[in-house]
Amino acid sequence: MRKRAAAAAATASLSVLAIGWLVGTPAVASLQNTLGGSATDATVSAAASAPAVSTPTATATAPAVATATPTATATATPAAAAPAAGVTGTFTGSVVATRFGNMQVSVTIAAGTITDVTALQLTDKDSKSVQISNRAAPVLKAEVLKAQSAAVANVSGATYTTQGYLTSLQAALDAAGF
């Protein structure tokens, strides 16, 4: 009986490790994409980033849903981005599903400069998530306008909102070729 219990415990431990690995890999890819890092690691799944499609009216949409499941709060310093000169238009990022609801943003670019970021959807699972999103969105917008990229620091206490916002923003910037 003792051997069976030990074997069952070992099997359960291996199962937990395997599931953690499968869940963690997309989270790492999402975090890397959000922070503007490159996803060159062979363990990072390409499915973690949502494709974006441009339309002739300079509005881009990405209907795929990405999942933001951050495992740690990370801070990034604004990187020196080389935006495409002359890019102008409004680009819509993908809908990002978070634990507290969907997130989606659009970005307005004029002559290669980010001029506005609009939250189209904020987390809305409950009143607390609405309150957190309403507090974090203006801070994120100000930081993005200052950095001119999605490489900004997390808003303390709003990790899921920040990750969803920045993932959707990065999809919009990618659609713009920014």
Could you describe the 3D structure shown?
- The structure is a single chain.
- The chain is α+β, with helices and mostly antiparallel strands and 178 residues long.
- The chain is 40% helix and 19% strand.
- Strand 1 (53-54) and strand 2 (60-61) form a beta hairpin.
- It is elongated and about 70 Å long.
Describe how the helices and strands are arranged.
Elements: H1 2-34, E1 53-54, E2 60-61, E3 65-67, E4 89-92, E5 95-98, E6 101-110, E7 113-121, H2 127-147, H3 159-176
Give a quick account of the main beta sheet: strands, pairing sense, barrel closure: 5 strands, mixed
Order of helices and strands: HEEEEEEEHH
User: What's the shape?
Assistant: elongated
The span between the termini is: 62 Å
Tell me what portion of residues adopts beta-strand conformation. Answer: 15-25%
Assembly of the depicted chains: single chain
Q: What is the count of helical runs?
A: 3
User: Could you tell me the number of beta strands?
Assistant: 7
Helix content: 40-55%
Mean pLDDT: 72
Structural class of the secondary elements? alpha+beta
Taken together, the total number of domains comes to 1
What is the C-alpha radius of gyration, as a whole number of Å?
18 Å
Poorly predicted spans: 37-82
Summarize this entry quickly.
The chain is of the alpha+beta class. Helices cover 40% and strands 19% of the residues.
Keywords, separated by commas or semicolons:
five-stranded mixed beta sheet, 7 strands, two-stranded antiparallel ribbon, alpha+beta
